[in-house]
């Protein structure tokens, strides 16, 4: 399975523990990015692509329910207390892939590897992806698709996000590679 970036949306100290557990316990995470609020998570997703999101149920500026509509085809694992089972069920009905019940001893961190592996398998089964490669010179090193003001990039981004409710990533080393991922219908 290909390594992917993970976005962790949780309190600062807890985000660091989750990030460390994902990096150390799995070979599936390339890079972890942390955010503490819904708006920070949305901004992070606008600037890079993620293979999965781990998000606390309750956040300072809302909840995972506010973040889910922004995820498109990015799988989300909801983390919360056992007493919030109803809210976790609602998140699952809105498209979250799985949930983890957090405990005060942080034993839930040991569940991250198997949960991530299962979520990525489900994502691959439930999503469709298209890959387009060109063998040209590639993109400039500092090029950011999210900041591009060209009509072509704007159209592709708009179609993927608004029509397909999916995600789009671009790599520019040794040619250009565009990957579009969206949920199967």
Give the termini distance in whole angstroms: 23 Å
Q: What is the CATH homology-level superfamily of the largest domain?
A: Response regulator
Largest sheet: 5 strands, parallel
Structural class: alpha/beta
Helix content: 25-40%
The Rg value, from CA coordinates, equals 17 Å
Which oligomerization state do the chains in this entry correspond to? single chain
CATH topology of the largest domain: the name is: Rossmann fold
| Unreliable spans | none
Q: What's the CATH first level of the largest domain?
A: Alpha Beta
Strand tally: 10
CATH architecture of the largest domain: 3-Layer(aba) Sandwich
Mean pLDDT over the residues: 82
Beta-strand content estimate: 25-35%
Overall shape: globular
Secondary-structure element string: EHEHEEEHEHEHEHEE
Overall number of domains: 2
């Amino acid at each position: 399975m290909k390594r992917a970036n993970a976005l962790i949306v949780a309190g600062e100290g807890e985000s660091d523990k989750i990030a460390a557990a994902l990096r150390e316990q799995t070979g599936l995470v390339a890079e972890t990015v942390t955010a503490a609020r819904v708006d920070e998570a949305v901004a992070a997703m606008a600037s890079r692509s993620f293979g999965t999101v781990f998000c606390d149920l309750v956040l300072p500026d809302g909840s995972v329910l506010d973040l889910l509509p922004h995820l498109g085809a990015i799988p989300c694992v909801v983390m919360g207390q056992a007493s919030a089972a109803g809210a976790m069920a609602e998140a699952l009905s809105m498209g979250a892939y799985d949930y983890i019940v957090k405990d005060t001893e942080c034993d839930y961190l040991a569940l991250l590897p198997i949960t991530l592996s299962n979520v990525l398998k489900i994502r691959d089964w439930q999503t469709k992806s298209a890959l387009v490669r060109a063998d040209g010179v590639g993109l400039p090193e500092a090029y950011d698709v999210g900041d591009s003001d060209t009509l072509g990039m704007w159209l592709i981004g708009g179609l993927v996000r608004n029509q397909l409710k999916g995600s789009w990533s671009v790599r520019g080393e040794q040619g250009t590679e565009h990957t579009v991922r969206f949920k199967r219908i």
